[in-house]
Queue: 2 jobs
Job 1
Amino acid sequence: MDSAGYSGTPLQMYEPHDLYVKIGDEARLFCEAFVGRIDLPDAYNEVHWKRMEHNGSVKPPERFQVTNKSREDNEILGSHLLIRGVRREDFGQYTCQISNTWFQSVDTSVWLREIVPYHDESQDKTAYKQILLVFAAVILSSLTLVALYLRFGLQVRVIWKDSFCRQETNDGKDYDALVCYDDRDSDFVLGMLVPKLETLYDYRCITHHLGSIHGNFGTEWSAVLKGPAQHSRRLLVVLSPSILHDSWTSAALYEALHALLTIHNKIICIALQPLPKCDPTKNAQGESLSTLLHAVHLVEWRSEGYCVGMGDRSREHKRFWASVRLHLPPHRYSRQAVSLKQELNQMSVATTGSRVNVCTAVGTSKRGTVLTNSHESLEVLV
């Protein structure tokens, strides 16, 4: 073809493809055609970009930049349409029209489209499954930790207290616990509580029975317990109807606890029976029975299923001893000492087994000879 005399319709040189961009990105459209060369003084070629809409075509906005380029001695004419910061209204069809001197033209169309994120439902299902698995694992782990804490948490706290808490040995006090009780509860105190605390757990105890004290708790108890309490790290009181003169009411219990709190600031109360219903009414000082119960460490004893000589094999009794030990002073002792004390305790139980009914529940009125490790708590019950 003789390009110097070509006067036909411009020939498209480049076939554009649809362009996919994101909102805010830069888009560049391009078209190119062969227009030839005509040796006329007024010969000229033109390029126009248009945007196609439903009701026709419109010129691109002024913010669009059009750059025309020619090559091969102006025989090939091309054009770039640059869009910076693409907006949503910029998406659509664009037409590049290249015309020659004879008003002949060629149109090149191209689409500017928005990139749509690929949505894979299978990946979503996999992600949901993974989230459910993680959630189930967290729930299962939490339930396992809660179950382990409910089963072994108390024992772990006791071991931690005895192993790492600061010992109370240099406080000038001679005893770990002052144990107060009524004569009618001596089987429980002298037959099981004190011997086990002394022989198995190596606590030094002193006992004091309050059965002969009658009248006002505040004046009588304070007078007889103030001295021994000053030499004891804990005040351990066995609560029962007998120690309250058979008045197992919230008022009597309030009076007793109020008197005990004036004697010692670290009190452990062992309740042999369920406590009476607390009266929510507060006195002039803003105190109630619930307030005083929160100020002491309350441990409930359940005699069901306990047999002398059989040990504390039930879960409730293990929790009882762990609860009592948790509030007693920290104790360091070696495994060898513990095993030796366990053997001595078993020998003692075996020796007394011939004299005591093996399955007699602690807390009844049976009496027998009791030996303790502390000379101050040595008593013979008739």
Note: DSSP finds seven helices and 14 strands in the chain.
Job 2
Amino acid sequence: MDGELLDDIIRRLVDAKNGRTPRQVQLTEAEIRMLCVTSKEIFLSQPNLLELEAPIKICGSSIVFRPLEMPVSWALDRTNDFGFQEALGRALEAFGANFRLLAQAKLGDVHGQFSDLLRLFEYGGYPPEANYLFLGDYVDRGKQSIETICLLLAYKIKYKENFFLLRGNHECASINRIYGFYDESALIDEKIICMHGGLSPELKNLDQIRNIARPVDVPDQGLLCDLLWADPDKDIEGWGENDRGVSYTFGADKVTEFLQKHDLDLICRAHQVVEDGYEFFAKRQLVTIFSAPNYCGEFDNAGAMMIVDDTLTCSFQILKSTDKKGKLGFGNMLRPGTPPHKVQEPHKIDEDIS
């Protein structure tokens, strides 16, 4: 992909920030197609289990859809609310079945909140000022989903060794087949393992993750399903039934067992809304990160970004909601199959896990 064109796309997207909502951005179908084709080759050239080095900034379920106060118009024709699906679907037709966009799409957990994605970069530093790892779930029904995925893919192409995107549970064939090429997990300095969901009873060796063939759809059960769908549960020991109807829940004992077996210090995951943007579990051996403030425009939750320095000290940068307080409390179901998960433990802003 032409370097000048890539820089121009990044500039247009970043410069869209104007007040509380980004102004309109125009990308051509050809430009979106080039982003997809080029990023696909980069994803396939990198392993399923990324082995990364600190310092790095980790963004969890990052940009969640919420209603826009102002519409965003595109050069691409759009006939319904599934703007991302419509435009990107046409752009991907040339790729064949593995790349056709299907019914709907979702982007740690960023879910299409483009303005909040730009706020994360403003606080944490725009690439390549900082290294980034996103934990999945990037787009939803929001009208800003195209901006979100295009900027993430553009940064992936521009800084492929400094900018990483893991696969979330919404990145599957029933949602969008391009995500079959995303990485599944990341290992930071051989001490912090990152995934979207959680642990699996089938995970005995990290080479099992490395050996997953791509492209691959998410099965209804098994290792890959659990990496994207499993949840921690403070009320159980061992493995339990997941209220989502897929995968498992796991207790603190399984976290300790896994970390000791693989000589790791911390599990970092996303997949659940947490009130303060981050929540510890199992005596700070696991942390859930959620980077989208004001989830769905209904909850007054904060977003967070975890910063891992070169000594493996972890700190959290908090992204407060800029909107009015949400209408619902954290005792309610946030979305079907995704209850809020609040670990009742005190928090510290800095955690030394070395």
Note: The chain is about 25% helix and 15% strand.
